[in-house]
Specification:
Blueprint (H helix, E strand, L loop, with lengths): L13 H9 L4 H8 L3 H9 L4 H20 L5 H13 L1 H5 L23 H4 L64 H5 L12 E2 L19 H5 L8 E2 L5 H17 L4 H14 L2 H21 L31 H8 L9 H21 L1
Antiparallel strand pairs: 1-2
Helix pairs in contact: 1-5, 4-14, 10-11, 10-12, 11-14
The chain binds a DNA duplex (15 and 15 nucleotides) through helix 1, helix 10, helix 11 and helix 12.
Length: about 375
Amino acid sequence: MPQLNGGGGDDLGANDEMIAFKHEGDHEEKIRESAYTESDLADLKSSLVNESEISQNSNSVIRRGHQEDQRIYTDKREHLDDVPKHQDGGMYKASYSGYPFLMLPEPYLPNGPVSPSSNKVSVVQQGMHPLTPLLPYDHFNPSAPHIPTDVSQKPGVHRHQPQEISGFYQLPQGQITPSMNWFSHSLMLQSGMHPTGIPHPAIMPPSGKQEHDQFDRNIYVKSHPEAKREKEPKKPVIKKPLNAFMLYMKEMRAKVIAECTLKESAAINQILGRRWHALTREEQAKYYDLARKERQLHMQLYPSWSARDNYVSGKKKRRKRDKQDSSTDPGSPKKCRARFGLNQQTDWCGPCRCVRLSLTHVFSSNTTALL
DNA sequence: TCACCTTTGAAGAAT
DNA sequence: ATTCTTCAAAGGTGA
């Protein structure tokens, strides 16, 4: 099978997907066993009264059950290998737009509609995530202001030598594809650019905080305070490529927010985590596929980049707290159950109610699937 | 202003 | 080889 890297032996994305899917054999079991404590299940069982929810889930369960029946994974690796087969063919060229430079709106292409890459432009709306139109991807906005940045590369370090990646965007170092020519001068002077001349969503300010009014998604522009003391311009930080779950979160966050009228990311992420586990393999595979392509392109664009580059040296930037007993966690659903009980759910905090609803959703799905 | 929360996955470091 | 740690996104929260 042709590899994206030209069969050089670096089977990108394979390992991680093996890891990602190695648990999938116990996917359902994992949901049943680890997603909830026994008390959670008991509580949920005793109060599964949301008819509409159950009804809604029944359909999905039927669908999932059907899919499960049809699934034959004699070899998980074989299944995974199917994905790159697509990208070697037309799918990768036509459907996956990778990073923004691959989905330039036609007016911004040097040759307009007759540009070699114009075939992809038409299917992706400006401002949408290149990997899936559902994702807001506002960082790519040719009209957005940019300030020059220097994405320096460490000399002599080569994580990966670009060789071949789907004819559409082969990017030998220093070579600019025809569809990139429009970047080559004026915009390169204005925008956060990779040395290849490609704007990349992974370029971030050293602070790590996004400032949407100043750089679209990730391209670093100095903030006002920094501008005052820009004597010592900081190098932009190249962010890690998003993994499958992160891509899923980006796509689904708005939906969850709308459903739960929540904005607190911690609670939303809990819900998204549950929903992630509730996805079918095929549904998850879509995101694993996108994530792998993100990594591949990231690697093409920043061959010398290492995740270690973003590690805070010397000290631990963020120390994860020890796993707290959720019963002592003020924001925990258990806490609310303990305090108010299931009969007084109206006293539960919003996040707990929403998380519980989501748990109920997943639980009912899996319970029904077992029946 | 900034760390924390919270999730999963990837990557690198440490053991 | 396995385990541990950090960082990706997001936005509210509290110090």
